[in-house]
Amino acid sequence: MNSDWASENLQVIRTLMERSVMYRRALAPMTILAGALGLVAAAVGWFAKIDQAAMFIAHWVSAAVIINAGALILVRKQAVNDKEAFWSAPTRRITLASIPGFASAAMLTLAIVLRWATSAEVIPWLIVIWMLFYGCALCAAGFFMPRGIKLFGWLYLLLAVVMLFVLWPQWLKLSVQENHLVMGAVFGGVHLAYGIYLHFTEKRGNAP
User: What mean pLDDT do residues 58-64 have?
Assistant: First the structure.
């Protein structure tokens, strides 16, 4: 009994320590960066008149790669500043939890590109797929992070449902170029708003 009690408490302490490490690590800067770059990508798509489905997909996949690279650089910088290991146990758990969601979105995107990349009708479907699987990935990662991340993931799932079942008829009438504004709103605007919220509400340092 004593051995079980001690083991359980050690696990609780370890989990709390890991969570405190994650909480410090770049949540507000990462979401602000993702939001700002998302808005920039939307502006580029709109003003550069990217109005072909294949170019739309290539543009936003490239934006996602750049945003993720920027987020990794921020995490790496904060880990160095805090003299912590970059590939820590919390980082491994979050990465492994979110991989199925991101991988599923990538595979479906690839399948759609190979079959219907020239059709503008695939754009609304792709945006819904990206929101759904992104929300799933955030919810899965949220088991090892503050509760707000899981709620943030649920927000994307809710947005996808609203766009699919409520706004769908009007959405289908949008041009490829106008869907850059949709992407800017749902990925750029929502991330930026959440990052600003975190910046002003998160406890500074959150030291263990």
Answer: 94
